Amino acid sequence: MPPSPAAAQGPGETSSRGAWGGGSGPYRPPAPAAAQDPGETSRGAWGGGSGRGWRPSQPQRAPEPCTDLPVHDMQSLKLSELPAVPSPARTKSTLLPVRRPDRGGKQAIQRPRLLVNHFPVMFNGNSMIIHYDVEIKLEDPPKGRSTKIPKSHLRMIKDKLFSDDPLRFPLSSTAYDGEKNIFSAVELDTGTFKVDFSIGEDTKSCSYTFTIKEVSKLKFGKLKEYLSGEVLSIPRDILQGLDLVMKENPSRLRIPVGRSFYSPSYDRVDTPDGGIIASRGFQQSLKPTSQGLALCLDYSVLAFHKRLPIIDFLKEHVRGFKYAPDVIRLRVEVMKVLMGLKVTVTHRVTKQKYTIAGLTQKATKDLTFNVEDPEGKAPPKQISILEYFKEKYDREIMHKDIPCLDLGKSNKKNYVPMEFCILVEGQRYPKESLSKDGSTFLKNMSLAAPRERMKTICEMVRADDGPCGGQIAENFQIQVTKNMTKVDGRVIGPPLLKLGAPNGKINQVEVDKEKRQWNLVGKSVVDGKPIERWALLDFFSSADRSNYSLDPERFVYNLGTRCEKLGIRVDDPLVYRRAALWVLSDIERLRSLLESVVAEAEKENQGKLQIIVCVMAKKDPGYRCLKWLSETRIGILTQCCLLSHANKGNDQYLANLYLKINAKLGGSNVELGKPLPRFEGEGHVMFVGADVNHPAARNSTCPSIAAVVATVNWPAANRYAARVCPQYHRKETILNFGTMCRELIQAYARINKVKPQRIVIFRDGVSEGQFDMVLNEELSDIKAAICEEHYCPTITLVVAQKRHQTRLFPETPRDGCSHGNVPPGTVVDTVISHPFEFDFYLCSHYGSLGTSKPTHYYVLWDEHRFTSDQLQELIYNLCFTFARCTKPVSLVPPVYYADLVAYRGRMFQEVLLDNSPVSSASSSSVASSSSVSSFNNQFYRVHPDLENIMFFV
Description:
- One of its GO terms (cellular component) is ribonucleoprotein complex.
- GO terms for molecular function: RNA binding.
- Keywords: Repressor, Ribonucleoprotein, RNA-binding, RNA-mediated gene silencing, Translation regulation.
- InterPro entries: ArgoL1 (IPR014811), Argonaute_N (IPR032474), PAZ_dom (IPR003100), PAZ_dom_sf (IPR036085), Piwi (IPR003165), Piwi_ago-like (IPR045246), RNaseH-like_sf (IPR012337), RNaseH_sf (IPR036397).
- By secondary structure, the protein is α+β, with helices and mostly antiparallel strands.
- It folds into 4 domains: 264 residues, Ribonuclease H-like superfamily/Ribonuclease H (Nucleotidyltransferase, domain 5, 2-Layer Sandwich), CATH 3.30.420.10; 152 residues, Response regulator (Rossmann fold, 3-Layer(aba) Sandwich); 232 residues, no CATH class; 115 residues, paz domain (Beta Complex), CATH 2.170.260.10.
- It is built from 21 helices and 39 strands.
- The strands form 9 sheets. A 9-stranded mixed sheet has the order 23-37-38-39-35-34-31-32-33, sandwiched between helices. It has a 6-stranded antiparallel sheet with strand order 9-10-11-12-3-21, sandwiched between helices.
- Helix 13 crosses helix 19 and helix 16 packs across helix 17.
- The relative contact order is 0.15.
């Protein structure tokens, strides 16, 4: 999810940087360079009226086409005078990202000097790197058993071969990806080699065949030509090899987790919870930039299990566990924390790791097994675990009355006493399992202040176990500058905003000079919708005595009073009901409750209910059931809030609550005071945002969820319609992109009586390696779906990336804000940007926590001929129009909203899983949907009454 509006900054999760797309577009001149309680309360209704002194009643049981004029191109021409651009769908050649239109932007109200975590990389353009393909197999694989070799073993087998024959296979001149690829600075012998490898001293050695074949010789000169703009095709294979070389040293000396590397050592202060350590690590990538190749490295923190004996681990993680015999009394809790963890054993010397499959049913002293005669002359002999460990390992088992660990796999038993098992280091601890204090500890470590983060990054670059440590990079003739890159930033001026006044007038206001925020004290929203026909639901939890029950009279009074200051009328709710919190998770009961509330309200008022405000005793998984039912089946808006906030009645909270309600009701909270850059005086413009939400890492079946949102008003461009659709598992390409865009254009036309002539699309969640897919598949799909004989709008396509490692740091305190971060509106589009393609970094928000992360905007297609200044200002101005808060956000709103809609689709999918026939015999209406398929579009389809309004904010 995107950062919360309340603190739209801070470190985000990093992901791998893909390969970089190169090339120039056809329209650019070359650039110069649930405690739950059963039962439901009886139902009641509010009396009518809008006075402040009410009391709750006692509970009772064809659109106009647009065309493009065929005139010749000049930068000075208006958009309406620009020539039409050939549709990608009709272009046979592969499209490439557009080139930078100029040398970068010029507009600035401030020019801070910045440091960036990019470290220039020098390489010898005359040297080469040799790519080899590797295949490792068991020489004599056992019949009927899996022959897949664990990845950890592959590296050890490779290291065994290289250490046995260093002249033919020099370890310090090679980099291995752990599976199929080796890159070498020198020529290696090719062919098939035999490797005898044993995991432990008492383990039988296995013979492996190690086959190595040369793939290609890669000349660094090609990369040099690309960086200088002489060639447009990016040498991905060279970058892959160099990236692997820079990761080889930390992969040998640190704990690899995904694409990050963490230190195995820790300080005593780095322990968020018992038995857990918070390890500092980094993620790195190589980036082609205007200054040449650069190593980008950023700091991260992850929780790991400590390396502990199993019994000590249980003392740390199981409440009430003090001594080994407690395993029997607390067996269920012990099983829960141990299952799936990896251990190594101490009774023999071995590198083998075992996964805990469970506990034995019998105590250790009662366990026996059969031992075969090695020569096969005598029948199997039965022996106890106690005797076996004494005879074979000369080890006396101390804890005889507790179960053993079962470390077997594939139905094969392998019983080992707990006292001989130690947790393997480097096992990630799920952050959702951390205690509240542990979560806070880890968050504070992650949210390092800019100066602290900058210092840590520099230390990691220079560390012996970092990317530049050892002799590996040097042997490939690679040198890295150990100082951060200096760059001149620019701060774009904030826009004037339109806000309402309680008397109904519209005024232009200036934002705060440092934080770029504004407030609603003495002001109002631009177009505030009165809350006239609404219902109030109180979902209580009698099992949780820490919460007080809702005071409905006080809540409605406080909300009405706060809205009255904004000049907004709030009538008394038409219906008031109380229901137990568990009802949220019961689809049929919840449906009955919502439908009865809607029916009663319409009967009372003879008009459609605007919204249901739901006060919840605490956060509950049933929230997603409420949203799915109300937004896809019933067609009623809901606004949820927590009991603790509702009872306090804080002015700021209630104002923010109304901002969300107003956006859902079709109101307008804030608008820009001047037209958006490049679109002054032009026809209608539509902004589109698109994103794909993928299931959790360990999920291998659930569909991904695609979401597309688009503005439906102009020139305010702050109200959005949304479409959500399931698609194939982990498929990043939006399969129905064109269809969803066509629907949104049709919705725009119904509302405005004209189709948009200009479309700006913001695509989220793709790396550079997926740019070709976005350009040549998604854009083609959109063009094919929306273009007609008399309608072919011009399109600009921009990728917005938040999952990258680039950070901006003020060089001196006077170059930044009071919290040490760069000022809102800071742009960098030189030195660290692409050598010739159109990209830039924009930090649009104020960072009050941790170190701000800029958004990386990358223009792939541009039929509007934006200059750098125009596009940067347009995006920055749009960041002020986000409906949920009174400050600019870190991500352009179309993408932010697409994130929210995709996440809503994920919640719908979780409802489908929770109520499938496998997990629930009840809830027949949902089960019938889920039995068809998880890809049933109708299950996710938003109700027609809501699909063109902002139900998702």
